[in-house]
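Trying the structure run again after the queue cleared.
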Amino acid sequence: MKGASLKALTRTRRFGVLVVVGALAAAVLATTVFAGASALRGRITADGSSTLGPWTTSAAEMFQRRNRGVQVTVGISGTGGGFERFCRGETDLANASRPIRNSEHLRCRENNIRWLALNVANDGIAIVVNRSNTWVNCLTTEELRRIWDTGSNVNNWSQVRAGFPDVPLRLFGAGTDSGTFDFFTEAINGRARRSRSDYFASEDDNVLVQGVAGERGGLGYFGYSYYVENRSRLKLVAVNHSGRGCLAPSIRTVQSYRYRPLSRPLFIYAKRSSFRRPAVAAFLGFALNNQAAIARRADFVALTRRQAATARNRYRRALRQAFGR
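Done. Tokens:
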């Protein structure tokens, strides 16, 4: 795959802080106020979603080829942790796998943090099991709810469905600071954060991959890109929602939102005061103009044409407000 060596570095350091140094040799975007500008300089800080982190890192790595004077740091502390830092004014960008909560919005407002939200990619939460699992190819949303709901005592595959073998069920899922945790629990259990607690939880999706891959009875969930990268180590399980038939996440089923109820948009939140800095605005414009290429490179699901047009229009309006053009 193009950029494979850089991608490998991204994946191995995903849960540290990856520093990407870039340079601007000429125009950043023909459609922005920066067209024809000389070299941009500055530092951009991002933190948040473990799901979206690889996408933002890939965007920064592509941006670096033209922007040696700009340093982009991408930290990953989960959507909730990212919003905490963002609303304290510590970062320019917050990567999010869910919309900002009202409580987070109020915290930002208390600190005079105004923001711009941009939809940059799509995702379908992948349900995965160990490769040696021969008995399950599809689970219903009701079965998933019985497994993951608060107070569940389903601890063996034989309890999931009649005919399944007597194999201990080992669960791996998102930590409570993760937007994936909020989205999954609301979609499957009916309310965000409603979940059993006796499972192996982590904001580091690589750890979850390793857990499921190492347990014959393992079952886990995380963003689709992590499954794609590790498909040789995991088995993907389709989901049957309300008797509509078994569907697995794919570019087509996620973009069309037919993969229900686990398809979702992914966002970057930009601090308005940071957006007024040319380097930040240029990076976001570059990311939006190249979102499809970034998605291919990072194994993500790109925006639809309508989504992309909506995001670019929102970006252009923010540019006019910030720079009076």
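The chain is about 40% helix and 25% strand. Worth checking whether this holds up in the mutant runs.
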